[in-house]
Specification:
Elements: H1 8-15, H2 21-38, H3 45-54, H4 58-66, H5 70-104, H6 107-110, H7 117-130, H8 133-155, H9 157-164, H10 171-184, H11 187-217, H12 234-243
Helix pairs in contact: 1-2, 2-8, 3-5, 5-7, 8-9, 8-10, 10-11, 11-12
């Protein structure tokens, strides 16, 4: 699979010398999705149908808003809101009926079993806010990248070296590669991979924490004239290391 179309993005991410190559891949994919969804595809019927059913999470709505294409976002959101209103019409009818039922009960009845329709209707609304077309696509893409990374580790000696010399992962992607590794690596390959990634993860978390500690100590007047070293961006690196591309 060396330098195959599937491995090129992984290699490119590792060449950036970042704290988490998988976060770099995720960021690139998110940016591509924003460009794609707010571009010509905003008028494609199939795309609009998919958006109408799934919508977007808060993070990805904000990314599209920040992209500055207000008209593209408005067109996409308008049909999504209309479809949501259609879904909520029946939901509202269910809530009204349940509310009337509760209102007609006597005092002692009201102290007993409550209508199950109200929590069910609330769950329907919650489900409408829980889905995101970007998140679905991004999760699928990241699964492919993790599989590719593991394949490259087993079959490309130069990539094995690049991974060993990298800065590890954010905690979320560290967990993901640990979860996926036993599915795709076996025997000695699995042993070496687990030993390697756990070693570099601990080393690099320690490195970032030391940079963060020095960042805090620099605010002590006694350290005012001492060099910052690598600590000036330690806050954002620490946050991203702990929570993956958060800032």
């Amino acid at each position: 699979m060396s330098r195959h179309i599937d491995t090129i993005p992984v290699w490119d991410a590792y060449k950036t010398d970042c704290e988490c190559p998988l976060c770099a891949l995720m960021k690139k994919n998110e940016e591509d999705y924003v460009d794609n969804f707010l571009g010509a595809s905003v008028m494609e019927p199939d795309r609009r149908v998919e958006v109408n059913e799934k919508g977007f999470c808060r993070r990805h709505f904000k990314m599209m808003f920040d992209a500055g294409n207000r008209l593209g976002l408005a067109l996409m959101t308008d049909t999504y809101m209309r479809r949501t209103l259609e879904k909520l019409t029946k939901n509202a009818e269910t809530l009204a009926a349940a509310a009337r039922e509760e209102g007609q009960k006597g005092l002692f009845a009201r102290m007993g079993k409550k209508s199950a329709d109200i929590p069910a209707a609330a769950a329907e609304v919650r489900a409408m806010t829980a889905s995101c077309i970007f998140c679905d696509r991004l999760n699928a893409a990241m699964e492919r990248y993790v599989y590719t990374l593991l394949y490259m580790y087993a079959h490309e000696p130069d990539f094995k070296k690049a991974l060993a010399e990298s800065k590890g992962f954010c905690l979320d992607h560290y967990a993901q590669v640990l979860e996926e590794a036993p599915k795709h690596l076996h025997g000695r390959d699995l042993q070496e991979f687990i030993e390697t990634v756990s070693k570099i993860e601990m080393e690099n978390l320690t490195r970032v924490e030391k940079d963060l500690e020095w960042f805090t100590l620099k605010f002590d007047y006694r350290n005012r004239d001492k060099p910052w070293g690598n600590s000036q961006d330690a806050v954002e690196r620490s946050v991203n290391k702990m929570r993956g591309g958060a800032v």
